Amino acid sequence: MRVDLHNHTILCNHATGTVAEYVEAAIECGTQFFGFSDHAPMHYDPKYRMGFDQMELYESWVKEAAERYADKITVLLGYEIDYLPGYMDENVLSRPCDYLIGSVHFIDDWGFDNPEFIGRYAGVDIDNVYRRYFGLIEAMALSGAFDIVGHLDLLKVFKYLPTGDIRLLANNALKAIKQANMTIEINASGYRKPIGEAYPSPLLIEQIAELDIPITFGSDAHCVEQIGLFGEDAETLARSFGYDKCALYRGRDREMIKF
Questions:
Q1: How many of the other CB atoms lie within 10 Å of CB of 28?
Q2: Disulfide engineering: 141 pairs with which of 48, 171, 180, 185, CB 3.0-4.6 Å?
């Protein structure tokens, strides 16, 4: 991937490898713009995110890498922030950086993409769960706080799919994303999950393209081996729906470049 904006560090407590190792792997893959967007701190579920007292350390790591490898690659600084009403912190939302990814990992107290809690899918009305999920995506977009939508249809991760048309379930969320002038990432991590396809699905990308919503790319890497993994598949998928440019952010300003 020429642009790869969604990647993590050990500070999230569920990733391995150094910042330098990630950047060197990205250079080896031919990536030109590589972004770190680790899980931002929040007073909820601290096991899977950096602490507030680690933000300066995180930023120093990324900025040092940007300087060290400046002649080979552009390294960008972002955060992935959970959209969880009542728990998001203004000190994070206003933090100077290149971009903010808004993601939904929780429906109430259910971390639905965590294998620890997969048992909670048993007996649920899956279409209603999807409605609630996309309702949160819609609210996230309308908040105006974020630049990029992270893994739009993450709820499908374990192959629990709606019985209804996903395009109808996601329609209001996509309209809100368009209204908010956000970008949707094509997240390659879905290829290595049980669902076995990118986030979002081809059906949704078709709808996204019809709405002329810009896209970008992310490995969502949590180890060095995942950098650029399935990147060609993600780019090919985007091209199949007419995309030839993707979004890049610097200082929260978007620019579109060829990929």
A1: 11
A2: 180
